[in-house]
Inverse folding.
């Protein structure tokens, strides 16, 4: 079957696999030093064909591996790191930045600047050099991934908000939107409280 | 500004309405107490002026009913009688001011202005009070703080921040804060103050506040 990722699909899968192993690797080291794990869930996915095609269409781009994998769209590889505490998010970010061969393309801090609907998360777009030919024909290739980092509370808000089928722009839904925002702010408050309690326990 | 007038004397009513309209007010004029209650319930006015001696329902009865409905718009009562008993009954029924006929238009207008001012102040008390400090606003009605972001506060967190924010420049020891906010829970450890200060410090940080709570329980806590 012809796919939007073409013959580069294997390289894509292996890139995601390598990145995942490296994140698991620094976490293992961290735990070996006597710390609690840096994340609660590590979720990875290759963007589905349908979803990639919709995104290419939305941007008016042709359905080619070059567009899907080489710098027009960065999230064919997706990694979500769900942490227990806010500080763990920043510890993960620090360690991702330090990974050899990884370059930061773009970062968005929706913790410091929550989206108007209340969404909180930290997004990193990274590039990584891998020994697989990329869609521009470079070998070793440059591959891209989007990493989202958030707490369990932020993740549960995002998951539930995503499940609720409401029209996000219609003014009839002002109340729903503002209540969801309130829930997000309350969960953020819980995250801060849990962090504070954890700090107190660790300083005792 | 909307004024409701109730007076059964058609000439006086017409004249008052004309004067008030000329002074820039929107006027609704009715001729007895029953109509006054109906009009007050149906519309929203800034000030109401009722004659006491009116058919169907007098001004004091109308006023009582209106107050029972929870309408707290300022009411000025007017009457030909300068009777003290009348004034007491009127004020006790919830009137804000009193005018004895005959009165000058100048005095009526001044009393309407005064009543409207007091009414506006009452309304402002009901509007959620927001205390601002640094780049932070503390919305005490919704229990949240906003700077770059918004975050919710627990009741005690809000009351603690309220004390510090409305006394900026002053510091409070842990003991003082415990006495103010936890005096209903004497069994609680005084360490709770430290805990709540830490909650607030992290929440201020989380919303991107440019200030924090400095100090410790002994030297005193303050916003800075």
């Amino acid at each position: 079957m012809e796919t939007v990722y073409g013959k580069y699909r294997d390289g894509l899968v292996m890139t995601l696999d390598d990145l995942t192993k490296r994140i698991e690797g620094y976490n293992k080291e961290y735990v070996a030093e006597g710390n609690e794990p840096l994340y609660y869930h590590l979720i990875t996915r290759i963007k589905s064909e349908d979803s990639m095609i919709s995104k290419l269409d939305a941007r008016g781009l042709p359905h080619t591996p070059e567009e899907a994998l080489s710098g027009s769209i960065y999230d064919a590889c997706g990694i979500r790191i769900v942490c227990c505490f806010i500080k763990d998010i920043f510890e993960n970010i620090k360690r991702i930045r330090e990974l050899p061969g990884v370059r930061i393309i773009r970062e968005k801090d929706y913790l410091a600047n929550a989206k108007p609907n209340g969404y909180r998360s930290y997004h990193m777009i990274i590039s990584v050099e891998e020994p697989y030919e990329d869609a521009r024909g470079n070998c070793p290739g440059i591959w891209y991934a989007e990493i989202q980092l958030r707490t369990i509370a932020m993740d549960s808000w995002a998951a539930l908000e995503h499940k609720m089928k409401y029209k996000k722009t219609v003014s009839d839904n002002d109340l729903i939107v503002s209540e969801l925002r309130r829930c997000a702010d309350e969960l953020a408050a819980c995250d801060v409280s849990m962090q504070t309690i954890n700090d107190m326990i660790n300083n005792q | 500004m909307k004024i409701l007038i109730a007076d059964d004397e058609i000439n006086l009513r017409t004249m008052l309405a004309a004067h008030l309209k000329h002074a820039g007010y929107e006027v609704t004029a009715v001729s007895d107490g029953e109509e006054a209650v109906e009009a007050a319930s149906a519309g929203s006015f800034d000030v109401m002026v009722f004659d006491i001696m009116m058919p169907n329902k007098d001004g004091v009865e109308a006023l009582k009913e209106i107050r029972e409905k929870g309408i707290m718009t300022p009411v000025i009562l007017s009457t030909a009688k300068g009777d003290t008993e009348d004034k007491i009954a009127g004020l006790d029924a919830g009137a804000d001011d009193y005018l004895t006929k005959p009165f000058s238009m100048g005095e009526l207008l001044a009393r309407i202005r005064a009543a409207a001012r007091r009414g506006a102040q009452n309304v402002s008390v009901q509007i959620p009070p927001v205390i601002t400090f640094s780049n932070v606003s503390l919305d005490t009605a919704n229990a949240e703080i906003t700077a770059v972001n918004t975050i919710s506060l627990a009741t005690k967190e809000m009351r603690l921040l309220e004390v510090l924010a409305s006394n900026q420049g002053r510091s409070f020891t842990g003991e003082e804060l415990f006495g103010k906010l936890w005096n209903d829970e004497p069994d609680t450890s005084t360490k709770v103050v430290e805990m709540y200060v830490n909650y607030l410090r992290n929440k201020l940080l989380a919303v991107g506040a440019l200030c924090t709570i400095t100090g410790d329980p002994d030297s005193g806590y303050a916003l800075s």
